[in-house]
Amino acid sequence: MPLSSLRVFESAGRTGSFAAAAREVDLSPSAVSHAIRKLEETAGMQLFVRTTRSLELTREGRLLLEHVQRGFAEMQRGFQRALPETQVTPLRLHTAPTFATQWLMPRVAGFMQSHPGIALRFSADVNYATFDDDDHDIDVVYGPPTASRHEVIPLVVEELTPLCSPHLAARIAGVHDLYNCQLIQSEGQSVQWGGWFSANGLATPGDFALAFDRSSMAIAAAVDGLGVALESTLLAQRELASGVLVAPLMGRSTTVRYIGHYLVHPRALDPHGAAARFKRWLLAELIGSPGGPAPPEA
């Protein structure tokens, strides 16, 4: 019996839905239905009871699902045990540059310690991974991706607020004090100073003497006391925690909130593989980040 058919059956039996199984194994619902029919013909038994509104396993289906799941788990353990002790599973990550340097890299040691059998391979740029050439396993992108056949998960609600050094913050008692400060523009941000001033009912100052195309550079400039950056508290979490940056107007001005980063991966993700384990770790880490996890999309 082909393993591919059993994989489709396991997914459909576990999720109780041909549509959900189709998303998980990266096939069309009709292809899933066809694979189940072929499996039933080969096995000589009915595995599902289909109605217009539900999909239920038969007694034979429940028994088979139990053994198939046990078999997949045993094969996974066998492959892991068969690997040489020095061999590790590569995980190819593609990320937005600032997310990688500001948020992810400070936490990589924790992931590697808890997942010693996974070797991380990083690449970072502003392009999105297509997964068509099999160069990447998972992607963290900035800004909502265009319509995609891949799984797209909003990560966290971010807050944009003025950030600066403690020395400069001593001169900022209210929003209007920003007009007397050097403002640092982050040109890569989807919401820039103009949007923040507008949200606070104020006119945007004129030209900016300092502008960067990477938020990481704007954050570094603010740490060095060069001015006030409008940045995400998620991306500046380490600097805020250490005290080298402060948010002088947090709670005294309108904070712009938005979902900035998204996790993208092919729908057919091995639930026991390195990419799925990284995904679970990433989402768990984000639970403790400012804003918490993003609300599920309607």
Automatic annotation (TrEMBL):
<keyword id="KW-0805">Transcription regulation</keyword>
<dbReference type="Pfam" id="PF03466">
    <property type="entry name" value="LysR_substrate"/>
</dbReference>
<dbReference type="InterPro" id="IPR058163">
    <property type="entry name" value="LysR-type_TF_proteobact-type"/>
</dbReference>
<dbReference type="GO" id="GO:0006351">
    <property type="term" value="P:DNA-templated transcription"/>
</dbReference>
<keyword id="KW-0804">Transcription</keyword>
<dbReference type="InterPro" id="IPR005119">
    <property type="entry name" value="LysR_subst-bd"/>
</dbReference>
<protein>
    <submittedName>
        <fullName>LysR family transcriptional regulator</fullName>
    </submittedName>
</protein>
<dbReference type="GO" id="GO:0003700">
    <property type="term" value="F:DNA-binding transcription factor activity"/>
</dbReference>
<dbReference type="InterPro" id="IPR036388">
    <property type="entry name" value="WH-like_DNA-bd_sf"/>
</dbReference>
<dbReference type="Pfam" id="PF00126">
    <property type="entry name" value="HTH_1"/>
</dbReference>
<dbReference type="InterPro" id="IPR036390">
    <property type="entry name" value="WH_DNA-bd_sf"/>
</dbReference>
<dbReference type="InterPro" id="IPR000847">
    <property type="entry name" value="LysR_HTH_N"/>
</dbReference>
<keyword id="KW-0238">DNA-binding</keyword>
<dbReference type="GO" id="GO:0043565">
    <property type="term" value="F:sequence-specific DNA binding"/>
</dbReference>
<comment type="similarity">
    <text>Belongs to the LysR transcriptional regulatory family.</text>
</comment>
<feature type="domain" description="HTH lysR-type">
    <location>
        <begin position="1"/>
        <end position="58"/>
    </location>
</feature>
